[in-house]
Amino acid sequence: MIEEIKMKTGHFGSRSWELMVEYLAKWLVLNNKTGIPCPPTAKFEGLNLEKDAVYEHLESLDLFRNYYEAAKASPWDHIGEVFTEMELEGPGQNLTPRAVVELMTRMVHDTRLPVDGDAEFFCYYSYRNYELWHYVERHFPPTHLTPMELPIHTQLDT
User: Fold this and answer.
1) In the chain, where are the structural domains located?
2) Radius of gyration of the CA atoms of the chain, in A
3) Residues of the chain with pLDDT > 70: what percent?
4) Mean pLDDT comparison of 21-30, 93-102, 109-118, 119-128, highest-scoring range
5) Among positive and negative, which fits the CA dihedral 124, 86, 94, 46?
6) What is the mean pLDDT of residues 2-15?
7) Are 20 and 82 in contact (CB under 8 A)?
């Protein structure tokens, strides 16, 4: 989709990525795929729902539906990965590694689904590095970390 946008608009880098995100959002709203109960023509602040020539070209190639189906089959921040692959992030701006996201999701939702060994090792290694950093910087082990208790309760549960 990015390549089609580049060819049709002459924009590169962050502008082509921004257009892709806007077009995907527009398609989701116009096709009532947002998961938000609202009429398909509901105005989302800042989102122009008028179709332009580039949008219609992408729609004629069925790229929106193909992206939607692929993302639905394999949920992940694919747009964020494109952002990273295009090296658009600035200093101090990067995505949370997938292994960390998967472990955080598992912890929050407690689905009891297995996470692959590499993800668990990565999270364990990151945690151990944090413990060591904390001890070196503050000269005592981190006491603010506590084991997670199941079932998990959040502010939404109260």
Assistant:
1) 2-85, 98-157
2) 21
3) 70
4) 21-30
5) negative
6) 93
7) yes
Residue 135: enclosing H or E segment and its boundaries?
A: helix 117-138
Share of the chain above pLDDT 90, in %: 26
Q: What pLDDT is stored for residue 97 in this prediction?
A: 73
Residues counted in the chain:
158
Verify cis geometry, omega within 30 degrees of 0, for the bond prior to 141: no
Tokens (6 digits) for 20: 């892709």
